[in-house]
Amino acid sequence: NNAAGRLRLSSDEKMFTVDTKINRRNDRWLIHDHIDVPIVSKTKFPANPRQHALMKNIYEKDYYVVSSEGDVMPPYFFNKEENVTQEVYLHVLINVVKPWMETISSRKSYVFQQDGALAHTSHLVQNWLSDNVNMLSSKEFWPPNSPDLNPLDFCV
């Protein structure tokens, strides 16, 4: 196994939103009186429209992060209007992720793993990664219908 003994680096994205998803079947409250049920404000009916607009502008962002065994990259926040295309993703890999991986790995061998998002699996990105990272888990290794078992789902 070529990956044995190498430092494993995993990447993932997450979208922060102001409105949480409410599942009335799963969200339950044990109360003595119906007045004790918490009010859940939403964008459509915010408790404070001005504050909500500010919060939405600040916090509703997509971020990207990489982790290794014990280290987590400071999150990279994409601009709210920015679509994560192959070019945008490659820019982040070159200018943010690669320097961080080189620092963390201390020039030791490592394996870089990412999920099957379109920007990650484009030929442009795959070619750059194969030329510039120590070892890459290929896109065939992570099928689109597999469960997301990325370590970042459990630590960030």
UniProtKB/TrEMBL annotation:
<dbReference type="InterPro" id="IPR036397">
    <property type="entry name" value="RNaseH_sf"/>
</dbReference>
<dbReference type="GO" id="GO:0003676">
    <property type="term" value="F:nucleic acid binding"/>
</dbReference>
<protein>
    <submittedName>
        <fullName>Transposable element Tcb1 transposase</fullName>
    </submittedName>
</protein>
